[in-house]
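Session log. Operator J.P. requested a structure for one protein chain; no other inputs attached. Running the standard single-chain path with token output.
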Amino acid sequence: MKNIPHQFSNLDKFYRALICVKELIEEEIPLRDENLGERLIRKGVIEPRNKDISIDDYLAQQDQLTASNRSYYTAARETRRFFELLGFLTVAADKSAYLSRSAIQILSIDSPEIRNVIWREAILNMTVEGTDGELSHPYRILLKLLQDNPGLETRKLMLALEAENDSGEEYQRIVELAELDFDTILTEIDVTETKAKNAIKILPAIAEQLGDLVKNGNNSFPNAQISITEDDISTDILPDQTNSDGIPYSQYRSVTTQTIATDPIFNSITTATFDLGESIRKRQVRLAQHQDIVRILAAFCDANGYDLYEGKFDCLATKDDTALLFEVKTILESVSDQEKQSIKGVGQLKYYKFSIVKRQMGYEEVIQYLVFSQKPEESLVEFCNEEDIIVLWLDGTTFKMNYTDDNFEL
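Structure written below.
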């Protein structure tokens, strides 16, 4: 059975732990066990078992133990590894480190609801390697198990970490194991009850916090379908590439109507995996639609005399001292999909406006637009307007504004 860190499973604790990591990086303090562990305990992310002693006394007691037996060392090591598995953190051999874009985005957002969208995406994409080197996506497997077996005993969700890979054959083996009683499962996969308990500590708890799982007694039920969006596919750009101004290429780059939103080249997806193949196909369709909308938008801005940029954001149009920042979202008819896309889009616009358009590019007047592939729910338009974001939606080849039939004009 594969292993993932199980020091704690509360997303608020992970968020506060990520703040600790960020602080140490900014202070240029290596993320060694002793440094991160002490920061975690002084910030209250972890606590001494004996709450009657001071933190200094606790650390002094711990220092009498060998390094491998210091509990706050273990907490630091597991926290660091979990963030690495999520793709939030890259740590060098000397324990210097840097945070990913997603981690920085989480730390820049006050809303727990918006942060949860990023948590979910990272956990869905988390891969875990087994002793044989094969990779699997345990959170995807857990959700698949719930969807196919509503009411499954919660402790049997440990089987999400038993899968060697994402193949259909392996998933079928997991489903057949889930049909056995719990003690027989432990015998079949040759794990101890302690290891089994550790295997179910984190993922089901996170799924419950994200709203993907509902518990009823000792059983679990699926609470939502994970919708597939174009945001799960991004263009890989080497971290050391810069534009002519010395700015990292992934931040922003000048483009034309011919070079913006180029279509990616999709490799053929086999049906060998039970979950990923169809999901990727759905993302490809939505991404193609997304790119079409960006190109229509860019042509419209270009025709009105604006210069064009793309980067982490979808499109930026500038003229004189004014910048128009656009984020494009394809949406389905379902309200849940529209809500998810709206929440993500609002967070992206606010972050890109601050970190790139204002701080790096120097624009003070930035107008934000969230652009949908179809007319969204009126309540979501009101939400965006409340956040000083103008909503556009595509009607044929024309953009409508907010919840009216008025054409968007520049």
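Operator note: Residues 276-303 form the longest helix (28 residues).
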